[in-house]
Amino acid sequence: MSDTAGPTFSRRTFALGGGAATAALPAAPAMRGIVSVSANVGSGLDRLTARAALAGSETAYALLTHAGATDRQGRRSADLVKGVLGDRLVALLAPEHGLSGQAAAGENVGDGHDKATGLPVYSLYGERREPPADLLARIGCLIIDLQDVGLRPFTYAATMVDAMRAAAASGVRVLVLDRPNPLGGLRIDGPLPEPGFSSHVSALQVPFRHGMTMGEIARLVHWQEKLSNRLNVVKCIGWSRRFGTNIFRGKTAMAFTPPSPNLRSPQAVLAYAATVLIEGTNLSEGRGTDRPFETVGAPWCQGEALARAMTALDLPGVSFAPLRFTPTSSKHQGQPCDGLRIEVRVEQVFDPLLTGLSLIATLRRMHPERFAFLPGKPPFFDLLIGNAWVREALLAGQTPAAIVRRWPGEVSAFEKLRRPALIY
Fold first, then answer.
1. How does pLDDT run across 350-409, given as a tens digit for each residue?
2. Would strands 295-298 and 337-344 be described as parallel, antiparallel, or unpaired?
3. pLDDT per residue over 246-266, tens digit each?
4. Residues 361, 363, 364, 365: is their CA dihedral positive or negative?
């Protein structure tokens, strides 16, 4: 098996680039839960630094990356790729939060300069959403190395696809340095976005939780949209779809580097899969606290009663504890809040969407005069989930259990659609 995966597909087979090996269309893996990590797991960056020839032979490259893209030892992709390519690396590009990973969510980021590499940094989350045409005219290959979290609302996959489309229009090869999906690759959950709800948090036609790596998403989009340029994916080392956040624990652990300012630990990434929906409400999702997305509340919330009510639901793999906090930024800044702390205890049975919807339904039941979805056309909650009907169902009093039973058909169809793009 080669170190890279190419994008060639047919109805019954898919081709793996580099060695031109072919394999039968892979069957969907069975859900058996998370398994222990018994070998070193690494990213495409780790593989590239061990075998520089994987970069190719173009005379000029640009790298789309951020501070969260590191090797097993926690070293920046920008520095390591610069070490591999030398002067052939002519520019860096950065997604939401900027190259440093410190800009706030949704904040427009300007262009800059990276002191460590001496390279210009072009922001793709500001005045532009794709690489500038004059840069694409100067390079032969765009390298993409971004750490995603396996959820559609996280914007890095959308940024990658925008960059891929622009590269294709300019005839520039794309090389994706793949990275493990920290939520694993087996479970798919949630609806696909409906027409009229497209935004940077719902830009791709994938379920809320897609169960794919960035390299696999790149292969899927390249295939679906018939992009004319070359795409290669440098594969992860030792990663299995059955791994979860345990890749960041133990003797064989990868270094965990926050993929964004408020996802500061593997536990936060797990909780985010449920509480990202809180961003579409008038509750604090914990920004401005020491544990964002693991913390939820508001000045009018009754934390102890909320924790009891959530515990009584007996949701799998998660616990709730009352908590008082005062956010230093974002919603309810400077105001004492009551709420709860969310702790994922058993990752393999934790149901993020059911948990997040149950939390919203419980808050609305307990505080009907205070709880609200944030206004907008469409409301931000609708953009996060990809439709209006989930919010409308919650407002109509439908149970979260009934809501999550409405999208298995979409999930099943997507599972079949994605199969040719899978690498692992």
1. 999 999 999 999 999 999 999 999 999 999 999 999 999 999 999 999 999 999 999 999
2. antiparallel
3. 999 887 789 999 999 999 999
4. positive
Strand partners, 70: 76
Please list the residues that pair with 13 across neighbouring strands: 24
The model's pLDDT over 160-212, given as tens digits with 9 standing for 90+, comes to: 999 999 999 999 999 999 999 999 999 999 999 999 999 999 999 999 999 99
3-state secondary structure of 81: helix
Q: Phi-psi region for residue 193, left (φ > 0), alpha (ψ -120 to 50) or beta?
A: beta
Burial annotation 109-137 (CB, 10 A radius, 16+ → b, else e): beebebeebebebbbbbbeebbbbeebbe
Confidence of residue 419 (pLDDT cuts 50, 70, 90): very high
10: pLDDT strictly greater than 50: no
DSSP assignment letter at 190: S
- Confidence (pTM): 0.91
The CATH number of the structural domain formed by 4-257+412-421 is 3.40.50.12170
- Burial of residue 252, with CB atoms counted within 10 A of its CB: 0-12 exposed, 13-18 middle, 19 or more buried: middle
Q: Report, in angstroms and rounded to the nearest whole number, the Rg of the chain calculated over CA atoms.
A: 21
Residues in Cβ contact with 386 at an 8 Å cutoff, skipping those fewer than 6 apart: 152, 190, 191, 192, 193, 194, 197, 202, 208
Alpha carbons 7 and 290: distance in angstroms, whole number: 42
pLDDT at position 80 is 98
Among 285, 266, 286, CA closest to 347 = 266
Report the CATH architecture of 266-387: Alpha-Beta Complex (3.90)
Give the phi and the psi of residue 45 in degrees, each rounded to 5.
Answer: -60, -45
Residue 15: its pLDDT value, please? Answer: 29
pLDDT number for residue 14: 30
Buried b (16+ CB within 10 A) or exposed e, 28-50: eeeeeebeebeeebbbbbbbbbe
Q: How does DSSP classify residue 167? A: H
Domain ranges in the chain? 4-257+412-421, 266-387
